[in-house]
Design brief:
The complex is a heterotrimer.
Chain A (H helix, E strand, L loop, with lengths): L1 H36 L3 E2 L1 H4 L3 E6 L4 E5 L14 E7 L7 E6 L9 E6 L10 E5 L7 E4 L1 E3 L2 E6 L2 E7 L2
Antiparallel strand pairs in A: 2-3, 3-4, 4-11, 5-6, 6-7, 7-8, 9-10, 10-11
Chain B lengths: L1 H30 L5 H29 L7 H24 L15 H8 L3 H13 L4 H11 L4 H16 L8 H4 L4 H30 L3 H6 L8
Helix pairs in contact in B: 1-7, 1-9, 2-5, 2-6, 2-7, 3-5, 3-9, 6-7
Chain C lengths: L15 H23 L4 H24 L3 H27 L3 E2 L1 H5 L10 H11 L1 E2 L15 H15 L3 H4 L4 H8 L17 H16 L3 H5 L9 E2 L4 H25 L3 H5 L2 H7 L7 E5 L1 H4 L5 H5 L7 H6 L11 H5 L5 E5 L8 H35 L1
Helix pairs in contact in C: 1-2, 1-18, 2-3, 2-18, 3-8, 3-18, 5-9, 8-11, 9-13
Chain lengths: ~160, ~230, ~400
């Protein structure tokens, strides 16, 4: 029995070496494919949640996302709704338009910001609520994950805190 | 009957948020002292009782005012801050102040009853207080239950709704009893106490931020200066 | 390693021929894994890859020749610890001219994933199937350090190395190992062993708080290595406070205390990932044992040499170090009675320990070369690019 255990132990030790050699060649690809098939996703605090609807404008569109709720009482990021203007390169120099956030046909807020061509230019957004859905924002930059305007690749992302 | 089922279902669905929020306070505290499963269950029940008391305190005021939430956001910030200070103090005290052996006269005979009562003297108040303080940190499921309870026709109706909601969340706390068998490892109580000390610092910081935010007012300038920590559903 | 216990680490244990013979398989295995690095375009990249590979093989040869492990492993590990930030920060500066992470990068999922985050993500992922980290699940052109890749790497390392990740894989550990090696004598020789429990307390605290806040609490508040990699932009009092904590912890735990104590204080008394990895110390087939019959008098050289206080009187009586043992080899190399030995689980203790050591080193060094060696090559590439 002891000899069998020792034999198995040495076999596992040798197999460990084989895993160390061959593993990096096959394992990463296998695991990545398996990970892609799971329903795991990045937390909505960072991604902004899932798109709800697209509002078409002349030359660009506004993607309105589903509201992201504060996850737990101790979470530092509050509830917000994300809107994305794209493509940023096709936007007029100034944007000021009403946006319907909940899809009821009535605009919930007026979003205003400058859209300079320079991608490194600082952005500021002002949001005037038209309903009780969102909080006002006055010349806000990147205050927090629930209250910001930022240029991400060729889009302009605005997040408005919910009441 | 429908209201009971609704309250239970709402509570059960909200349970993960509740145990996630209360876990940092409850689990290290349960792990800190060697104790049998039966005594752990009693302490957990006391903790949950204190938590229920915290919820019901808001529920009574909410129903009387006819509001989902009894106080405005600004005042809630102060309440959260003070509750966090209380949690920090209790966790820190439990972590750092060693429990002394029972002092009794040498000629007094040992009795099982004496030893149990001496050992448990400080535990029930601490369990109740911890539960009450965590109950004061309002969570989104609580707010939802508050909206529903505020619509009840009578105060007993509102309280009953809340109690069944609470029972639904309490189911998720039963796995906390799994801490009990872990205490056979001698390092567990020491690790638990160190954890409580670390968490006391965190809750103290939360308390400072909440009170500072209340003091400066919930303005954008205050948030920029202090923190973005205070935000509500 | 304490002065009074130092053997002649350069005294040969086996001849040059036999040492070379044992090194050849390692050279072949690692060349296979290093081929992508050697095929990179540009002379500087090829030279860097070749230098890194040669460095690793040379150290392995010395391990075979001298029969010592700790000293040569430490050279690799310290090199990895100091070179990793160079390459990493270089890439950051080239990409965005700053070590700070702007929110845009977090929103677009371009934050490189670090293995330290793994324990914090487990409960939120189990409850909600979300990863509380601003990265990407799969590699992208702008973020090759994806969550899937790092988790796959960690799983592979855990199977091969177990807790020895802290001696062969962690690209941060070499920093405090390096600073702990500077002084000849410890100025603070006595450390209360109760501090060994601190990493467990921090692990429990950050796991519970991350579940309570749905945020990676350790990354936001406690990681000392943010100082030498990347950190959120300082935009408020809170982020300024966080940055202050990072610097204080780095200077205290990674630089000053290791220098004063000659121990890996960050790894032994703070790192929650080390505590997490201790849970998996049994996954590897290799470990260190203490042959109680040979040990006898109790010189305690092993205890005094352990960088992480994983050996104490109880461990010696039990015949094995604590689960926090990083398999660094310090105790084995310092033991005069060959009582502390490498061991394969399931085999008798002290029977053919050199065989156990060889098999262990083959597995560990292949992994180290594949992972750490490629990081060293990347950093050398940047440095050579400065000169050439």
């Amino acid at each position: 029995m002891k000899r069998l255990t020792a034999f198995l132990a040495y076999t596992v030790a040798v197999l460990t070496i084989a895993v160390a050699v061959v593993g990096p060649l096959v394992w990463f690809g296998v695991f990545s494919r398996a990970a892609a098939k799971t329903s795991l996703r990045i937390d909505s605090t960072y991604t902004g949640g899932e798109p709800a609807r697209v509002i078409s404008r002349q030359g660009y569109e506004i993607v309105v996302y589903k509201p992201v709720r504060k996850h737990t009482p101790l979470a530092t990021t509050g509830s917000f709704v994300q809107m994305v203007w794209k493509p940023a390169s096709a936007l007029p120099p100034a944007i000021s338009e009403p946006v319907d956030l909940d899809g009821d046909g009535q605009p919930d807020c007026v979003v205003s910001f400058q859209a300079p061509r320079d991608p490194k230019a600082k952005l500021r957004v002002t949001v005037k609520p038209l309903t009780a859905l969102v909080q006002p924002m006055n010349e806000v930059g990147k205050e927090s994950f629930s209250s910001l305007i930022a240029r991400v690749n060729d889009t302009i992302v605005v997040r408005v805190p919910l009441r | 009957m429908g209201g009971v089922a609704e309250a239970l279902a709402l509570g059960f669905g909200s349970g993960p948020v509740c145990i996630a929020s209360c876990g940092p306070v409850l689990l290290p505290w349960l792990g800190a002292e060697p104790r049998e499963l039966r005594a752990t269950s009693r302490l957990l029940a006391l903790f949950l009782g204190g938590r229920l008391a915290g919820y019901l305190a808001f529920a009574v005021v909410a129903w009387a005012a006819g509001l989902a939430l009894p106080v405005d956001a600004h005042t809630r910030t102060l309440i959260f801050g003070l509750a966090n200070f209380g949690l920090a103090a209790l966790l820190g005290f439990s972590a750092l102040v060693p429990r002394r052996a029972c002092a009794r006269p040498a000629d007094e005979p040992r009795t099982h009853l004496y030893q149990i009562s001496s050992r448990d003297r400080s535990r029930p108040p601490a369990a109740l207080t911890l539960g009450f303080l965590t109950g004061l940190n309002l969570c989104p499921p609580f707010v939802t239950a508050g909206v529903r309870a505020a619509a009840a026709r009578s105060l007993p109706g509102a309280l009953m709704f809340f109690t069944f909601f609470f029972a639904g969340t309490a189911v998720w706390f039963l796995p906390a009893l799994a801490v009990s068998p872990l205490r056979r490892f001698s390092a567990v109580p020491a690790v638990a106490r160190m954890t409580m000390a670390a968490l006391a610092v965190y809750y103290a910081y939360l308390g400072v931020v909440c009170v500072a935010s209340w003091r400066l007012g919930a303005s954008r300038a205050a948030n920029l200066v202090i923190s973005r920590m205070v935000s509500h559903a | 390693m304490p002065d009074q216990a130092r053997r002649s680490v350069l005294a040969p244990r086996r001849g040059t021929g036999r040492s070379l013979l044992l090194t050849v398989p390692m050279a072949v295995f690692t060349l296979l894994l290093f081929t992508p690095s050697l095929r990179q375009p540009g002379a500087a990249a090829k030279l860097a890859a070749l230098l890194a590979w040669t460095f690793m093989i040379a150290l392995f040869f010395l391990m075979m020749r001298t029969g010592q492990t700790y000293r040569w492993r430490r050279i690799f590990f310290v090199a990895l610890g100091f070179l990793f930030p160079i390459g990493f920060v270089w890439d950051l500066i080239a990409l965005r001219s700053s070590m700070s992470i702007p929110m845009e990068r977090m929103i677009s999922g371009d934050t490189p994933f670090c293995f330290m985050v793994i324990p914090m993500t487990l409960i939120p992922a189990a409850l909600t199937k979300t990863i509380i980290f601003p990265g990407s699940i799969l590699p992208t052109p702008s973020n090759p350090h994806s969550i899937a890749m790092m988790v796959a790497l960690w799983l592979l390392a855990t199977v091969i190395l177990g807790k020895a990740w802290c001696s062969y894989g962690c690209f941060f550990g070499g920093l405090d190992e390096g600073f702990s090696s500077i002084a000849k004598k410890a100025r603070l020789p006595k450390i209360n062993p109760k501090w060994r429990m601190a990493p467990w307390a921090i692990l429990v605290a950050i796991v519970l708080l991350s579940a309570a806040t749905f945020e990676p609490v350790y990354c936001m508040w406690l990681c000392p290595f943010k100082t030498v990699t990347e950190f959120p932009q300082v935009r408020s009092f809170e982020t300024a406070l966080q940055f202050g904590i990072f610097i204080t912890l780095f200077l205290g735990l990674v630089v000053v205390l290791p220098f004063l104590t000659k121990r890996r204080t960050q790894c032994a008394f703070f790192c929650p990932f080390g505590a997490f990895q201790s849970i998996f110390s049994r996954t590897s087939i290799f470990d260190v044992r203490i042959d109680k019959e040979k040990c006898g008098a109790g010189c305690l050289l092993c205890r005094n040499s352990c960088p992480t206080l994983a050996i104490d009187q109880d461990a010696i009586r039990a015949g094995k170090p604590l689960s926090t043992c990083m398999r660094c080899g310090a105790c084995v190399d310092v033991c005069r009675k060959d009582a502390a030995v490498w061991h394969i689980k399931g085999t008798p203790v002290g029977v053919k320990p050199e065989q156990a050591r060889l098999l262990y080193l083959y597995a560990a060094w292949v992994f180290a070369t594949m992972f750490g060696g490629s990081i060293i090559a990347n950093s050398l590439h940047k440095l050579i690019g400065l000169i050439v």
